[in-house]
Automatic annotation (TrEMBL):
Keywords: CBS domain. The keyword Protein transport does not apply. Residues 38-95, 108-171 form the CBS domain. The keyword Hydrolase does not apply. It comes from Marinomonas polaris DSM 16579. This is CBS domain-containing protein. It holds the Pfam family CBS. PROSITE patterns: CBS.
Amino acid sequence: MKTLDFYSTTEIDELAWPEENYDLTIDSSALLFFTDFKNNKPLVVESTIPVLTAKELMQKEHVRLKFVIDEKKHFIGVVSSDDIIERKIVQKVSEGLERAEIVVADLMTAKKNLKALDWQDISKATISDVITALKNNGERHCLVLDRENHEIRGIFSASDISRRLRLNIDIQEKTSFSKVFTATL
């Protein structure tokens, strides 16, 4: 075992800071705002864990979206904080499930129902283009596909973009007939 020494900080005046570009604008490259899974591990949750456990984990981690994986670690969908609200849990209970039996797979959005931007397109886009796409589609998050390699390359988050630009980005969820219909049930 190596013995480590402690040193005085009296002569130290500076803090180390990440090399981040603070001159970001809406005309900056979209890639500067992109969470690239080649550099950052995606936040995942297993499809079989109880939804109440997932909800608690997401609240503790201060995240609004996780990628759902199956037992073989294959991507099968996403679960957002909007998917696991109390009303949706109560709806599953009314369908005959016990509250403790409801798992992430019961409330997640399956990958077949997800849309994503293309890596090649965003590599040439500004963050303004991405914000417009998010607003036009009523999405707070947007996956990015690398179609050439058949993988989810990363994600954009409206809240991350907003924080980095110091700009309020108001995303209005699109209303669809199916959402209105299921909300009234």
